[in-house]
């Protein structure tokens, strides 16, 4: 009458549908929380998914209960000092006088904490990109950089002797020999011996006839026939490169304020996260430049103040070197995002364009983001913008379409501009 | 039975397998039934993983339940607490069903499994089967089938009418769940098996003539007759006043469709199923804790549990029955395990006249107090008989009022606080644990466990079917405590959606006038 059941083997994740319903329910709050979380995190941390907090009252379930007004009575344990008639101070925030078995007091206290829970990486990115309306931005050109190679792919009837598939050839030959009953040499041999030992003329004639028959069949059914021959077939292979590297070029000259750098950071982050959804492995190279360029770590990249003049070409040159040294284009997809206020001296422009023309064939995509304090700053065209624009229009490089340029002056524009950048790309390829 | 001989250890290490569990269960049963005289539903012990335990938490312990986002929320909440080590999982979870399902977590040691089996499979199980509230309001035999039906029905509705539609309806129903139970006098005992058949028949019938049944007859017929009837008669025709809001909506709401009524009914039944549990927390846990303690003690005496394992048990047991004082950093109210267990042991002491721990006879002073306060049971001898009677016939409120002894009030150092903002500048200590305070403390403690105290009493009092069809509700304000407005407004919004017309709740406080809250249905109407 007592049964013992092992439930451990039952399919798990019984709560998954409820989790999905909850996430859908709290979508707006979760999206906001994801956005907030992103602004606080380092770039690689974003990818871990991780805990987010959403305000509890957005997802609480209302029910009817009594408010804090009126007379409250309670029986509490642990009185060691008070006697009848004593007056205790009211505890701050209330709740202390209540405790006689009703749970509503405790329930109320909880609601002030935010509701924290853990999102998986996939969920996190889903909300992140849903927000951007970017889920379908998978452009072909972005992904399909191929590396050529050869791999074995079955057998073929023709080929060079070097690719002869000996085993397969011999197997075919044997099959054919068996199927067509090719006489074995041993059979002929034993007949010849028998012939020598026999005196019977009639028998000798019989054997000679037989030997002749077998020999002729042996000739008709050769040991190895051209139709048996097979060659190893090699196929050209197109394998997508699964590694990517992204270069972030940031202008940190004196004219770049914290606000501008923040805009750049947000943009870079989106760029990075987007790439990680496309490639399993993404490396990041941070290059900051004034009139000199330096490769730095992430912390320094965004935090350390530096000032000085501007020479974009130095960053481009350094990037070229790094690509040559560490990121062969046969193994890496190379992406670039550059942010600057465009305040590049005229004399440097020419140099930068030359470098750009060299670099563009190597990269998949080069996004240039011009940042400004407010819209009025865009009323005149910056030198760098003009140089890049002229370069694109001139048509000197077939790769010029890889260069995309946008202007941004406030945070809220980052998402749309980002989406727009990639959308535009999609139209070009389709 | 030869597996569970006296003097032979049931297990030696923390490890266990299914044979061990079987031996433990048989040994527990050999004590619980013949020695303690318990009467239980057949047991079903289920070994589960932590994740499955969290699942059970999230869906209020029920093994199968319909899908709703709030359960996902609860799962995430508990999951995080558990993973960050801020909260351990309960050792046990048990379902009031027949067979009575108890969950055993795979991480538990053999000693803990013994505790859990004693606690859940015999303690809670006996209480479920014998307590009058459970007998009256729940149907242990039918609940699992009914839940299966409910889950299927709601999933079907999601397919037919869309997940969002169903979710909105469930949100509204959940908001009113605390007011979806019958509290007094059984209308009739639930028979959930019949309930299921009835639902199917009703759905079939409804499909045949949906319009006839709901669109026209109900409001139209009622409206016609109200012209001649006095207000009183009109109310009684609608069955007003009615405290079960979900019931009233299910029967009388003019706008709901058949499937929506059925879902309200399901939510209402689930609420009713849990209703006795909220009223018997102290007794239920007290009974289960007393039983597991008794069983463990007997197993130890019989040499079936080693000293070391008994020590391990005592540590867990002591943790479970700890009552923190009110000024402790982690104080979070009364611990029903502590209070319940203390009261059960106290009854044992009063009935037997001996200290349950030491076995020594009580002092003359104590016996005098017992006789004075509990003349019916003092030193009557049959401890288990009297406990079984208490477990069967009381709920927390009446149990405290009958059995809370001066000695326990002293031990817990109970005091009676009153916060009346109009009369005192702080919180007044009205009574403490002395002979002037015992009766008041006990009375007040009992009142606090009255169902009407935890859940405000709200009734539907009138509907003006001739006019704007506004639904009138009333809250009787006690001690000047009004409802928490923020939540109330949101609940009323849900209510208005379900009703389809305006709703108005009046909070009536004798002497201090009344407050009114109104809410209109969403525009366009959700349902």
TrEMBL record, chain A:
The membrane-spanning stretches of this chain are none
- Listed Gly residues bias regions: 92-108
Q: Which domain of life is it from?
A: Bacteria
Any Pfam family: DUF444
Region Disordered: list its residue ranges.
82-112
Q: Which InterPro entries match?
A: UPF0229, vWFA_dom_sf
Q: Which family does it belong to?
A: Belongs to the UPF0229 family.
Among PANTHER family, the record links this protein to: UPF0229 PROTEIN YEAH (PTHR30510:SF2)
What name is this protein filed under?
A: UPF0229 protein UY70_C0026G0013
From TrEMBL, chain B:
**The protein's name:** SpoVR family protein
Give every SpoVR protein-like N-terminal domain span.
Answer: 15-450
Q: In terms of domain of life, where is this protein from? A: Bacteria
User: InterPro entries this protein is in?
Assistant: Spore_V_R, SpoVR-like_C, SpoVR_N, Ycgb-like
Q: Domain named SpoVR-like C-terminal: which ranges? A: 456-510
